[in-house]
Amino acid sequence: MKKLATNFSNIQKSRRFYGHGVPGVKLEEVTGKLIVVEGADGSGRSTQIARLVDWLEICGHATVQVGLKRSTLVSSELEKAQEGNILSRTTLSLFYATDFADQLENMILPALKAGFIVLADRYIYTLMARDMVRGMNEVWLKNLYGIALEPDAVFYLSVEPQELVQRNLAKSASLDYWESGMDLGLSRDMFDSFVKYQTAVQAAFRQLRKNYGFTIVDGNRPVGSITKELRKKIRALLVTK
Amino acid sequence: MKTFAELNFPGRLIAVEGLDGSGKSTQIYLLKRWLEAEGVKVYFSEWNSSELVKSATSKGKKRELLTPTTFSLIHATDFADRYERHLLPLLRTGYVVLCDRYIFTAFARDVVRGCPPEWVRGIYNFAALPDIVFFFKADLEVSLNRILEGRPKLKFFEAGMDLRLSNDPYESFRIFQGRILEQYMAMSRKFNFIVVDANQHVERQQALVRKIVSERINLTQFRRRSPLPLPPAVPRAMPPTNKAKEAEEDMAA
């Protein structure tokens, strides 16, 4: 644990936005760490983040958590619009981008400037993957999310779609409409649609991985072994080289 | 980027742009009245008017939560919603769509607010170009006075107060509008703006607008054939055309 006493200063050389970023940010002031955990519902994201927060805080690190659809600006409106399922794909995409930008500027960047470790329960990759499955152009998405800060680490919890179904049903005895991609009309059968949709999303993630390198973590294993792997990788990130 | 005509849409899109107080809304309203009276299928859409996005936008504005990036994105969301749900289907159905402000408003404003021009243009590249863009160019002082006389309390974002140009809202508004005008003028040629001298009388401007519209768009193609309003139709303020009357009589018989 003592090894965790950190000095972030010389790891900042690679801090960058994916594109133009947001106006008015001095990157040298962004001294914290941004750690992203990606994966489908049921991949164990939230569990792992909770465990990581525990561990990091006990070690003396200040943490902040962010996630999709949590902005003060648009989260409730976005929720409402989704209930009616009346948004077309570009609108939905931009709505989510607004939600992301609001959190980036008002939560993520301020916390990083204050030296916090920010744990993001999903980031732009889920948003991009979902949009790609809905036929949005990857170049368009890349430009849109050029506002995003490149994280220090991105872990993708990879779980087989069939296993995801089991976990989701065990948890809530139902499948989420959007996580099943029901808006896409892949199948009228929700189970079938879920598997098809998650398979397509995983393919989109593989495509995105070419440009946005992320670490794939086998999420089919027991919770404890996944946490162990994540800790090990994060520890390496925090210790001064 | 192509216009709707170039993309073989049956409909046509006419947009008006200009500073606040340039008189563009009056002009597009009069154009709409004329087209309706001509029996043309016409739909009017206003910037920042999507029901879905409105509550978020107004909250953001009221509480001054918006940054240049979220300001830009929330307006893009609003535009996308209107574009995908109303404009595209109507243009496919052969409507003449009138837009009070189009993507050029974002190109001008967001860039003045500090967003990178390529980023903003990239976001809006899903939208086709209007078939006609009228730019109402009044002297800066004229538009400023129109706004400042009629509505003395300027809103925070409207005055560009987020840019910290001046602590005085009026002064801030002047500087802000001046910069927007520069942006508009810089893109005028690239996007084939038809620049209308907005210092002229309302009637003269409208006569010019109608002349250009009738020269560039064969309006007979866009007349209503059926008396049944197609959803989402504009409430019909004008008497039905002769053809429509005949059809009604036929149906009654």
Structure description:
The complex is a heterodimer of chains A (241) and B (253). Chain A has helices spanning 45-58, 75-84, 89-113, 124-133, 138-144, 161-172, 190-209, 223-238; strands at 33-38, 63-67, 117-121, 153-158, 215-218. Chain A is an alpha/beta fold. A five-stranded parallel beta sheet of chain A has the order 2-3-1-4-5, with helices on both faces. The longest helix of chain A is centred in the middle third of the chain and has 25 residues, at 89-113. Chain A is globular, with a radius of gyration of 18 Å. Chain B is an alpha/beta fold and 253 residues long. The termini of chain B are far apart. The mean pLDDT of chain B is 89. The interface between A and B is medium-sized, with 32 and 31 residues.
Low-confidence stretches of chain A: 1-12
User: Uncertain segments of chain B of ≥5 residues (pLDDT<50)?
Assistant: none
How many strands in all of chain A?
5
Overall number of domains of chain B: 1
Overall structural class of chain A, as computed from helix and strand content, comes to alpha/beta
Largest interface: A-B, 32 and 31 residues
Quaternary: heterodimer
Strand content of chain B: 5-15%
* C-alpha-based Rg of chain B, rounded: 19 Å
Number of domains of chain A: 1
Largest sheet of chain B, if any? 5 strands, parallel
Characterize the biggest β-sheet of chain A: 5 strands, parallel
Q: Based on Cα principal axes, name the global outline of chain A.
A: globular
Strand line-up across the major sheet of chain A: 2-3-1-4-5
The overall pLDDT of chain B, averaged over residues, is 89
Helix content of chain B: 40-55%
CATH superfamily of chain A: P-loop containing nucleotide triphosphate hydrolases
The helix-strand sequence of chain A is EHEHHEHHEHHEH
Number of strands of chain B: 5
